[in-house]
Automatic annotation (TrEMBL):
Belongs to the universal stress protein A family. SUPFAM superfamilies: Adenine nucleotide alpha hydrolases-like. It comes from Halorubrum aidingense JCM 13560. Signal peptide: none annotated. It comes from the Archaea. Residues 40-140, 158-283 form the UspA domain. This is UspA domain protein. PANTHER family: STRESS RESPONSE PROTEIN NHAX (PTHR46268), UNIVERSAL STRESS PROTEIN UP12 (PTHR46268:SF6).
Length: 288
């Protein structure tokens, strides 16, 4: 593993044992990126849905699961990480959140948009459910869809990062992630979207606020460009992604609440569902 710059972090990688999620685990470049941001221990988690059991006709699930997890462990250990595997039963996003909380994970990594087998659909809807409920930063790793041997769409997880900000506390929390992401980041694009609903009269100038963020990034040795767009926030963030082709979109979420579907769905969840590349979603801390 390339030397950890900050050290001591742990990550949960959720897999449904499909060829799509396998490509995520097999990505040498992706594992290298995790090492660069300080990840040392990886927990590989697979969730068996409650309505699936190993004796179901045609499944052969138990044997496949053990074989796949042994292979995944070997790949990740060979990349220089300490590895633990977890097999749990239940609703995928709830169990993944539970494992992440119990092991004190700093990051959850899940694939999205790939094919997944009948017995466990982690890739796809679970990514969206995790976006609504995650208790730790969530990286949605985009994987090719509709091909027999899918690959990760963006090999470098954080090399070119597009940070979307509305200057809120949630956005500031996500911005602070650059303190460790910088060790795997080469380019940063800062985007602010002015919505028609915003009241900007008498408020701080967005260009000045973006320039302040540029100065902070400069202290971390990162060059950045800025852009102000106008329109619907989710649509404009996705349009900025199309224009700049980043490895990853970085943004904050409003975290868990009874109203999380309303609070999150307006921007963050929409971006997770529709982005072409990876999305790194930073929620409020567990204590919030």
């Amino acid at each position: 593993m390339t030397g950890s710059a900050t050290g001591g972090k742990s990550a949960v990688i959720a897999t449904d044992l499909s060829t799509a999620s396998e490509s995520m685990i097999e990505s040498e470049t992706g594992l290298n990126c995790l090492g660069r941001i300080g990840v040392e221990r990886i927990h590989i988690v697979t969730v068996v849905p409650s309505n699936v059991h190993s004796g179901m006709p045609g499944m052969g699930f138990e044997k496949r699961r053990k074989k796949a997890l042994r292979r995944y462990r070997s790949i990740v250990e060979d990349a220089g990480f300490d590895v633990e595997t977890h097999v749990v039963r239940g609703t995928p996003h709830r169990r993944i959140n539970g494992i992440a909380g119990s092991v004190g994970a700093d990051l959850v990594l899940v694939g999205s948009r790939g094919k997944s087998p009948l017995e466990n659909r982690v890739i796809g809807s679970t990514a969206r459910n995790l976006a609504r409920t995650t208790v730790v930063p969530l990286l949605v790793d985009r994987i090719e869809r509709g091909v027999d041997e899918p690959e990760t769409i963006r090999r470098h997880l954080f090399k070119r990062t597009l940070f979307a900000t509305d200057f809120s506390e949630n956005a500031e929390r996500a911005f602070q992630s650059f303190e460790y992401l910088r060790h795997a980041t080469k380019e940063v694009t800062l985007v602010h979207v002015e919505s028609p609903k915003d009241d900007t009269s008498g408020g701080p100038d967005p260009e000045e606020r973006l320039d302040e963020l540029v100065d902070r990034l400069d202290e971390w040795g990162l060059d950045a460009r800025t852009e102000i767009r106008r329109g619907d926030p989710a649509n404009e963030i996705l349009a900025a992604e199309a224009d700049h082709d980043p490895s990853t979109l970085l943004l904050g979420s409003r975290g868990r609440s009874r109203l999380r579907r309303l609070l999150l769905g307006s921007v963050s969840e929409e971006v997770v569902a529709r982005a072409a590349g990876n999305v790194f979603l930073v929620p409020p801390p567990r204590s919030a």
